[in-house]
Amino acid sequence: MIIDLPSTTTSQLNKKLVEIRDQGGQVALGRVLTLVIVADDDAKLEEAIEAANHASREHPSRVIVVAKGARTAAPRIDGQIRVGGDAGASEVIVLRLYGPLASQGQSAVVPLLLPDAPIVTWWPGAGPKAPAEDPLGQIAQRRITDSAAEKSPIRALTTRAKAYVAGDSDLAWTRLTHWRAQLVSALDLPPYEEITGATVTGEADSPSTELLAGWLAEYLKVPVKRIKSSSAQGIISVELERRSGAVDLTRPDGRVGTLTQPGQPTRRIALQRRSNPECLVEELRRLDPDEVYEASLNGLHKIAAPHTKATTSAAAPTSAESGGAKPKTGKSSAKKAKAEKSAS
């Protein structure tokens, strides 16, 4: 059910929500958080609401969408309430702010927040340089941006890294979960050898590739090279160098990865790019500060100067297996242990 309330107030919106609950029972009270979505781009608005509806299956919430209307118009709020099948397990309130109100989103949102519930603010498109300093970021325990949605993704990532405050996060980081898990899993297998270096190859403007390189640099404490590809999207490959041969995880097609390492059979791994709804679900599972993300931001300045790779038509070359060297049976290196801890 979708109810439009043009030229309304936050008080009228609250009254309408109570009326809907009393009359039809569509709006449940068991919400676990308030999700504030800041959608300056109308093209992103419906996509963001769809992602929030998907996430509501695991995290029932009140979703407040802040959209900006014409700044030259007279001040007013056009409201919309979505419940039932149009809102998943959430209740969605869309606020379109006109005139001077367009820059006063916080004052429109605060009266609609759930009492005594955590607040998460998400910018699915272009976001602020310092999320914690934005008025809608100041009221939130968790602030989610998406550097990949910016016009200059790498610049946006590095700018936010300098302005990082505990509680900040980025979907470019969430998209790395499967990559990090596979790399840590590979280090659980023999030979248990020290990592001496790493190379990360990916799209030139991929913030996820930068963060993966920063994570490796920060936790492995080894030189990490970043190779920029001009003909691929996202992350293409990661190579971890060891004495007996490299651990290679490649994904040239964006869907299936191949893991090769000395002494182990080659494995094909499902490594499809993650959707925004999938990433949002993961982000909402924990609302405490992400210390591993913070450490990976700190690792960005440790990455070696990037090189450019002209083509990625074929998978990255894999290392030959060790020529008869026996896998070590001793305990794993300290560097491997640090990487395992950071991916958990």
**Helix/strand structural class:** alpha/beta
The CATH architecture of the largest domain can be named as 3-Layer(aba) Sandwich
- Determine the N-to-C terminus distance: 40 Å
Order of helices and strands: EHEHEEEHEHEHEHHEHEEEEEHHEH
Describe this structure in words.
With 344 residues, the protein is of the alpha/beta class. The protein folds into two domains: 2-172, Rossmann fold (3-Layer(aba) Sandwich); 177-343, Dihydrodipicolinate Reductase, domain 2. It has eleven helices and 15 strands. The strands form two sheets. The chain has an eight-stranded mixed sheet with strand order 1-4-5-3-2-6-7-8, with helices on both faces. Strands 14-13-12-11-9-10-15 form a seven-stranded mixed sheet, covered by helices on one side. The longest helix is centred in the N-terminal third of the chain and has 15 residues, at 10-24. The two termini are 40 Å apart. The model is unreliable at 310-338 (pLDDT under 50).
